[in-house]
Design goal:
Number of strands of chain A: 11
Mean pLDDT of chain A: 96
Largest sheet of chain A: 7 strands, mixed
Order of helices and strands of chain A: EEEEEEEEEEE
Distance between the termini of chain B: 40 Å
Strand content of chain B: over 45%
Helix content of chain B: under 10%
Oligomer: heterodimer
Structural class of chain B: mainly beta
Strand content of chain A: over 45%
Chain lengths: ~110, ~120
Amino acid sequence: EIVVTQSPATLSVSPGERATLSCRASESVGSNLAWYQLKPGQAPRLLIHGASNRATGVPVRFSGSGSGTEFTLTISGLQSEDFAVYYCQQSKKWPFLTFGGGTKVEIK
Amino acid sequence: QITLKESGPTLVKPTQTLTLTCTFSGFSLNTSGVGVAWIRQPPGKALEWLALIYWDDDKYYSPSLTNKLTISKDASRNQVVLTLTNIDPVDTATYYCVHSPPWENIFAHWGQGTLVTVSS
């Protein structure tokens, strides 16, 4: 099983600043990496797929990068609605995919 | 607009069978390439993919839970059903129903989830 590790577990950021979230896979997954946003009581939201492709309707302040084993989600100019938990997910052998442990982005 | 809604019991006793239903709208499971999956999240823990069913009735299960899970569909009723047998307290989680668009290996739309607690 491919293990996915996210860091940091918690990220404290002031509104308007940039947040950089990391995701590492235990083996190369190519570009088969997605990012999701979870908020309490809401349906999870797909942000990024294929490592760098924004999903429909996702603001341009969200960007994904990386390939192989190292990936980054960058949120430029954090807005109040962006404080949430973010998960990355690898799908090298779809649909036998695995998720990271999550990064909580909180208000500093 | 695609929506998915999970339904089922909120409290289940250990060793029982849990049956969850996903009722969706905005797409059809008769459409080539479409899939519906179940994913869960135990309290304070990470997301875990459980099962996926495609329009052609092709089914996939998490290797660690394959003996415990059954996924099925009723395309005419726009529903997907997941059963978990011999339920255990570690199965306490929020269960999500998720849509996979035609021929895209992504989980594009999610339901809000339903919290199931396993306790005697």
